[in-house]
Amino acid sequence: MAGSNEINANEAKKVVPLHTWILISNFKLAYNMLRRPDGTFNRELAEFLDRKVSANAVPVDGVFSFDVVNRSTGLLNRIYRTAPPENDSGEGNVAGVLELEKPLSCSEIVPVILFFHGGSFSHSSANSAIYDSFCRRLTGLIQGVVVSVDYRRSPEHRYPCAYEDGWEALKWVHSRTWLSSGKERKVHVYLAGDSSGGNIAHHVAHRAATSNVEVLGNILLHPLFGGEQRMESEMKLDGKYFVKLQDRDWYWRAFLPEGEDRDHPACNIFGPRGSSLTGLSFPKSLVVVAGLDLVQDWQLGYVEGLRKSGQDVTLLFLEKATIGFYFLPNNEHFYTLMDKIKNFVRS
Amino acid sequence: MGPYDSSISAAAGGSTSSSSSACSSSTKPPDQMDHLLAGAGYKVRSNDLNQVAKRLEHLETVMVKSSPVDFSELVNDAVHYNPTDLASWVDSLLTELNTNVSGQPGPGTADLSDLRDFPAGPYGNGNVTQTGEFSQQAVTPLEEDVSIRLVHVLMTCAEAVQRGDISLASLLIDDLQALLGRVNSGCGIGKVGSFFVDALSRRVVNSPQNGAVQVDLSAYENEILYHHYYEACPYLKFAHFTANQAILEAFDGQDCVHVIDFNLMQGLQWPALIQALALRPGGPPLLRLTGIGPPSLDGRDSLREIGLKLAELARSVNVRFAFRGVAASRLDDVKPWMLQVSPKEAVAVNSIMQLHKLLGPNSSRGPPIDLVLDWIRDLNPRILMVVEQESNHNQPEFLDRFTESLYYYSTMFDSLDACTAQPEKTLAELYIQREICNVVCCEGSARVERHEPLVRWRERLSRAEFAPLHLGSNAFKQARMLLTLFSAEGYSVEENEGCLTLGWHSRPLIAASAWQAIPKPSAATPGL
């Protein structure tokens, strides 16, 4: 209804800083134009509008990046690293290349975060400006390495493509000697992701657990889960803070196999069709829930499900946060989050 | 990661934050861009933040209130420009929605997508496998180690060359030859690495001061390499296609048009434009084409030959056409009077990978770029189309140039790996090799491949009093369509502040931008 939309804009404005409101509203309106009622997606316009940045081998604020294409998938991996101390010849530019010859460290453990960007399975890429900025901040925070990966997006590529690409990325990361560290010379991997990326991180971790591939921890930033049932948060917050329930439904329809419903195990982890995690050596999880995200009841249900399965899970509930609060470092939720991640990766 | 900016209050005080940022922004200079949104890829002036927020809100209201028909028209027909400039993007959508109410059809300009007989070379006949999977031979971990070592030694050798340590450089070149023997020289770093090792050894053996490092090919041989480069990968096709789109739009409504091509070569760009003009609603204009090219030393008048072929084509589609060839060995030898531009014509200047050649010294004089840009401006063109390599190969320090070109050409060679057609691929590689050689081996006026990135060209062209003409979502969409027709997966078109780039995966390699001259204030005093 037209009237209620005007009210909603004002509500969101009360709880987010101006910059965040502009950024997320811009995405909201652009994305409205990309989702077609018939379930198809205007990919051309999406790619045109998405602001992208190149990798930069010259350190900026102590972080540099370079891209590597995974030859078995053809997908991009963007590696972020902290700049080594300048040597005498000041070879800033060649740093990336020289460092590929050795492990990250032979004595210390250097965390490597394998990051899956969000976008409800349909939007964004590893080289999207918002994700490049976020990964740079993350790299500086953990003083380690972040590997941000592209995965095939829906509706062109439905379940399970994104999970398969995530799995390939994990195997890739594990097999790079130049990402290894510590006395045991292995890669110390954490999985992380926001929105759909969080969902992917969960499924990749699950596969890793059943295949004896080590993942040291999961960091899920308002991960995308759902189900057929309508939860209280979905009904109460529908349309109020940038997101409409019908939009969420559209993205699930675009991602899940045709004809499937939201109780599909990709979507509803602990639902009627989910498989049990009890007894699995599933990594410890940090699940961040934004209190103004309509998906929160599903995320809280996920946390509960992990606990009941005997898994180690920490919930960070940010009551007044909306989706995308971490894109700009201009609010207290951002700094709370960063602190929590830093400690999670250190312990 | 310190405490956040004190001018931005905590989240709970959202409404206060807008007023506090309004207070702080009043002390900022008017053109200051907000740095937070800049990190997200948007340029918004700090002073405009509140205004942009209001417009966004208004846009949402209008979108919600619009009829489904109007909304779908907005979605399908609106052409978007320069999304980085958020304020103007929002405003353009508001304008679209306000004028869409009566359901008017869009402007009827001819469109290159209307062409039925789009030129399809051997590439388009399915010589290249387009698979969903990346059908590359897997690189073993051992090979990867050797590749990394190869790059390391290349850099060390280049550094020795820069320092003038020729004996060390020679030793390292021997090492490099040995390493090349251990990698797969058929693809990847092995292939491009061998060209760089070759270039380094040439430079070491014949110091650039002696000149004549690079063997001059005859014009005919040059043309052969160029033609195969054109067929093997989409860079030139993209350049031509995007330029033609922009020129077509600039010529809308004009009856007499004159295209000046800074490097005619085989005139491959022009058949498509001639055909598009032929199909233009309202009929084609009178088209003049002036092609600049090197003088033929072998007795052929190749400029005239191309001109005749194009005239033939124009006649067959009923486009009145006139051609003129201007022979010049260097672009700065061209004087504007040679182009015979008439004040009544709409002029388009087309420069595909040519302007960078003007950045070097010309014997004893400085770089002629500013003089040339000045006379281009004097022609008062409706459009100056510039396509350039997207890299900085013109840095003063040799090592920097070497490093940058190594990464650039590695990426370009990676993209060529997807081409399987022969001899297109081998000859295309030779074409690229000549560029590499020029960047690495030559100096002074012999070094003509002085590529500079879009960021620098923007500065230069602004200083020369040109204003950008933004390439929009329609050009973007069609460029992407072109790629799916002709090329393997992995090529990507990106929008960059009103310009379009074509690259391999996330690395842009070619940048296309369009410009128009800012009119000079009239010097004539009327009425005397």
Structure description:
The complex is a heterodimer of chains A (347) and B (528). Chain A has 347 residues and is α/β, with parallel strands linked by helices. Chain A contains eleven helices and eight strands. In chain B, 45% of the residues lie in helices and 12% in strands. Chain B has 17 helices and nine strands. Chain B has helices at 14-25, 35-38, 49-65, 68-77, 86-99, 141-163, 166-182, 188-205, 219-232, 235-250, 270-278, 302-316, 369-378, 398-416, 424-441, 454-463, 473-486, and strands at residues 256-261, 286-293, 321-327, 346-352, 383-389, 466-469, 491-496, 499-504, 507-517. In chain B, α12 (302-316) links the parallel β2 and β3. In chain B, α8 (188-205) packs across α15 (424-441). Chain B starts with 13 loop residues before the first helix and ends in an 11-residue tail after the last strand. At the A-B interface, α1, α2, α3, α5 and α11 of A face α1, α3, α5, α6 and α14 of B.
